[in-house]
Amino acid sequence: MVGRGPGGGGVTARLEALLAGLPDPTTARNGGKVFTRRYTTVDTGAAVTLVCADRRVLWLTDRLAGHAYTVAGPGPGWRVQLDVVDERILAPLAWAFAGAPVRATDPDIAIRHLHTGRWDAFSADRDRTLILADPDQGVVRVLTTDSTAGHRWGPQLVRQAMTAQLRAAGAVHAHAAAVVVSGIGVLIAGLRASGKTTTVLAALRLLAADLVADHRVLLARDPDTSRGGGLVGYPWPAPVTVRSGALLGHPQLRTLLGAPDPRAQMTGHSVTVDPAQNAVLLAGGRLRARVRPRLMLWPQLALDRSPHTAPGPPIARGEVRARLTRTRLFLIDPGRGPNEPTDDWLTDPTPPTEAGRMGQAFRTVVEDLAAVDCHRLYVTPDPVGIARQITALLPTAPLRAVS
Known about the structure:
The chain is of the alpha+beta class. It has 9 helices and 21 strands. The chain folds into 2 domains: 22-169, no CATH class; 172-393, Rossmann fold, CATH 3.40.50.
């Protein structure tokens, strides 16, 4: 953990006094009405209850969660509570964070961190927000003077709290997409701009694949031994960013480009699809909240290759293991540094004992993933050519006539 900040004991006492003086659950907004929603992930036991006084926070959290989380009834799990408070409540604590280290930038707000006894305290000055986390008890409190700050922090902290539980159970981040084609789980892994989303769209539109995740998955050894072992992956919900050039290859998706815009015809222009809208990308498939990888593809941009290009031969297990380790499951570009932030600042860095355990979890996932059949896939300008490469590796997946 980050060391104690200035006047650590005094900060702890003030935080506890602050919390003790707050009404529970919170604000007087909406005449004291409070909204509660509990989210779970399939087959894991991980759950987060969100408590707030702004219905829009629930709507935005639903929008981010998409198909990754399920809304469930009351039950155990972490609790994320958002409180809108008078600025006079937070003002006395401002001094404590003056010299505190910057923990994260999210994406344009410097988040300073102090560890003060029970709580990990985070100050997001631009939002006039104090975030308190007690991972041992599974409690997150958000105190803000900005009535709209919950629109940012509600969805993000629910995702962080859910991820923390999955990681505690041995899951690790992988920068990869995941689909299911004819019942076979396919992981599409690689560094940024390698062609992952273009490959996903070809599978969804031409092979009627099911979508698990476009951006990132959390991989863990399947705890259910009755299913034969191996890995299981869960989607880490995030918007899908698609370059317009990839959409132009699928006529039925061109409506995502929106109103006429000169940039829409530029292959470098991107559009964003929220997780709650992922169904529009499908063409006969469905959304899934879990995948068991049986094939791994490493896409590689090959814009000068023929659409009739064949996929690469199987990659040796040692080469797969070495690259997964070197890139930390494609989260790090060895030549450029971090490739994909994990966005786990709420609960990371972990105590030394857990850091060692997570290191073992990473090694376990790498070893299991190295045993999965792996091929290079060449991302050509023609989505039909990409789909043909996938069908060459999965003979049971018929090429569809739709686009």
